[in-house]
């Protein structure tokens, strides 16, 4: 299959014309987080099937539901109908941990991690520059005995699995941390309802400190230091099977055979 990165194209389909002419038909898998409804409408005539992946907290619009053959909602909490814009989850909307696009080797990485120690820090795109570094510096002051990992050059999962705590922004990496048995202290930029629902569903495994507008690096670091020292806040949860990729792949293959 072919891949194209359409981030930054906005609603203008012109840059996609050559790609779509050279790759007609088939099934398109699209990350909804970066795209608008007008762009979806422009792309749809070129493809036979469309799967749209929606990140946790992003609302699913009626256009998204109408235009797609399958919506893959990346969440682990009991999704509400309100969150899906009154679309009832069913044949066209897959949601929950069974459909998270996690590394299938996560359970193996978790089992081989050994004793957990240290803190893994990551704040994704959209966060103020230096925010993660400020959290790391404060944690080093509060927990001088703990190693702090902020930069990596290869697959982060083994390092994440060996860490006692992940501190960072809410996103897919939170699900990845939980999948390898690492507890989470996180903050978010928005989508507070979905983030709080995730934290509630995972009980003590994920602690949501608050939104960026309300919490500075010192507040996040203080919550993380408290969690690191308190075993009760690091209670394990039942492991997911991390087979979502295969469930989704089966759907794609079945659609291609039709």
Walkthrough of the structure:
With 258 residues, the protein is α/β, with parallel strands linked by helices. Helices cover 34% and strands 17% of the residues. It has helices at 17-22, 37-43, 62-67, 106-112, 131-142, 157-162, 172-179, 192-201, 217-229, 244-257; strands at residues 27-31, 49-55, 70-74, 93-95, 119-122, 148-149, 165-169, 183-188, 206-211. A five-stranded parallel sheet has the order 6-5-7-8-9, with helices on both faces. The chain has a four-stranded parallel sheet with strand order 1-2-3-4. Strand 5, helix 5 and strand 6 form a beta-alpha-beta unit. Helix 5 crosses helix 9 (217-229). It is elongated, with a radius of gyration of 20 Å. Residues 86-90 have low confidence and may be disordered.
Low-confidence stretches: 86-90
- Sheet with the most strands, sense and barrel status: 5 strands, parallel
What is the alpha-carbon Rg in Å? 20 Å
**Strand coverage percent:** 15-25%
- The H/E string reads HEHEHEEHEHEHEHEHEHH
Describe the global form: elongated
Average the pLDDT over all residues and give the rounded result: 80
* Tally of individual helices: 10
Terminal-residue CA separation: 17 Å
Q: How is this fold's topology laid out?
A:
Blueprint: H1 17-22, E1 27-31, H2 37-43, E2 49-55, H3 62-67, E3 70-74, E4 93-95, H4 106-112, E5 119-122, H5 131-142, E6 148-149, H6 157-162, E7 165-169, H7 172-179, E8 183-188, H8 192-201, E9 206-211, H9 217-229, H10 244-257
Parallel strand pairs: 1-2, 2-3, 3-4, 5-6, 5-7, 7-8, 8-9
């Amino acid at each position: 299959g072919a891949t194209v990165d359409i981030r930054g194209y906005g609603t203008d389909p012109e840059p996609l014309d050559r790609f779509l002419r050279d790759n007609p038909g088939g099934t398109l898998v699209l990350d909804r987080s970066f795209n608008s409804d007008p762009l979806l409408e422009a792309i749809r005539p070129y493809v036979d099937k469309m799967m749209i992946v929606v990140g946790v907290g992003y609302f699913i619009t009626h256009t998204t539901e109408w235009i797609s053959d399958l919506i893959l909602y990346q969440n682990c909490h009991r999704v509400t109908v309100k969150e899906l814009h009154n679309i009832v989850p069913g044949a066209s909307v897959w949601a929950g941990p069974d459909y998270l696009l996690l590394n299938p080797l996560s359970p193996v990485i978790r089992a081989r991690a050994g004793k957990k120690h240290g803190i893994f820090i990551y704040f994704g795109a959209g966060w103020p520059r230096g925010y993660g570094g400020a959290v790391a510096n404060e944690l080093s002051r509060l927990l001088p005995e703990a190693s702090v990992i902020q930069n990596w050059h290869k697959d982060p999962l083994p390092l994440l699995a060996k860490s006692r705590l992940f501190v960072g922004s809410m996103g897919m990496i939170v699900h990845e941390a939980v999948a390898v048995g690492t507890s989470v202290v996180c903050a978010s930029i928005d989508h507070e309802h979905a983030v709080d629902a995730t934290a509630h569903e995972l009980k003590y495994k994920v602690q949501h400190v608050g939104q960026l507008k309300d919490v500075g690096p010192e507040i996040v670091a203080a919550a993380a230091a408290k969690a690191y020292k308190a075993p009760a806040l690091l209670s394990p949860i039942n492991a997911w099977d991390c087979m979502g990729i295969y469930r989704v792949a089966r759907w794609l293959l079945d659609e291609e055979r039709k």
